[in-house]
Amino acid sequence: MSELRAALRLTVGRRGMTEEDIVALADYLISFFGFDSEVIDNRLDMDDRDVFYMLEEAGLLGTRQEEIHIKKGKLWRIHYWILRTNRIKKLAMGTVPKEEAGVFAYDDLPAEVWDRPPIPK
């Protein structure tokens, strides 16, 4: 849990998430995975899936799919979410290179880049 919290701080925490929210997000994530590294997508509702996509974007989750032929000759696709434990451990230890640890491409831009001239009335 401490490694997951540290990884969350370095990724989604950069968006201004409070420590309380980071702890809650870590608990929420572990409630799906437990001691496993994969969870089937069918367990998620729409809101859960949105959170998982955000964490995938941050590099903490990945996906894979499996195709199975069922008796009637149809193809059944099963989607899984994968907890990227090696990356989480590297982030927690601080061994991920700075350019890889930065989740957002715009993190290192100077503040004046975001200045805009006033909109004419």
Could you report the average pLDDT, rounded to the nearest whole number? 84
Largest sheet: 3 strands, antiparallel
Tally of individual domains: 1
Strand order in space, largest sheet: 1-3-2
Please state the structural category.
Answer: alpha+beta
Could you tell me how far the N terminus lies from the C terminus, measured between alpha carbons in angstroms? 52 Å
Unreliable stretches covering 5 or more consecutive residues? none
The percent of residues in helical segments reads: 40-55%
Number of helical runs?
5
How many β-strand stretches?
A: 3
Please write the string of helix (H) and strand (E) elements: HHEHEEHH
Q: Could you tell me the radius of gyration in angstroms?
A: 18 Å
Inertia-based shape: extended
Strand content: 15-25%
